[in-house]
Amino acid sequence: MATKLFVLSITIIFISACQTTQPTRFKVPEASTVINSHFKHLAVFQEGEGPRLHVYIEGDGRPFVNRFLIAADPSPQTPLALSLMMLDKTSSLYLGRPCYFANSRSDMADSACKLEFWTSARYSEKVVESMISGLRHHLATRSYQGISLIGHSGGGSLAVLMAARMPEVDQVVTLAGNLDIAAWANLHHYTPLKQSLNPSDLNLIHTKQLHFGGDRDKNVPPSLGAAWLNSMGQTMHIIKDADHNCCWLTHWNQILTQIDQQMTP
Known about the structure:
Elements (H helix, E strand, L loop, with lengths): L1 H17 L14 E4 L3 E7 L2 E9 L22 H6 L4 E6 L29 H15 L7 E6 L1 H10 L5 E7 L5 H8 L19 E7 L11 H6 L4 E4 L8 H15 L3
Parallel strand pairs: 3-4, 3-5, 5-6, 6-7, 7-8
Antiparallel strand pairs: 1-2, 2-4
């Protein structure tokens, strides 16, 4: 009898590990719209000052509830990149990632979404191309004198991958960016993201860049991307007392000044 109970317990644990959690819902801004690309993308645009456009790309959110349990909805409950954009006086676009915020608007439901697009394929060819197509959909009706891609965490990965394919982008900014996904997976003993593209395989030597890392960040330590940055003559700007998510809002006005100064003729 004890053996049967043990086997039953193991079976229940295994089934639970394969199931996803119920989605949580983030209340999107009333000004949000949906861009239809290869996937659907939540978009929030705010008109601002100057001739440039700042494009904000969110981090990975919560793709896993724990090491074995995939989230049904990876959307962050408190999107940091969106909060940062709200402090920006330059014209800005929040470009949501594929399959994120699907439960926040009825028209965001997307039959193209599969679990892989927020797990192993979160930075895949399909995801990158859809992000580019979504951004160019916005650019088709507006004109700017330069575009900055600003990404937090995995959004930094996508910003680099997009910039390498978009000549209209002249600046890339990453915040706690995962610039070497192979080194990151190895650090945490995660399964390698074999369906994803690795930013560290690219060369952005002709694109202006700013990379910021928190000195207390244990998720994506600033040292992870050091070799790639050094190969392009770039450095990581260390933000004191910041970790992966905390305190970026506190430092954001100062960082925005650096972003603007780098692009000032």
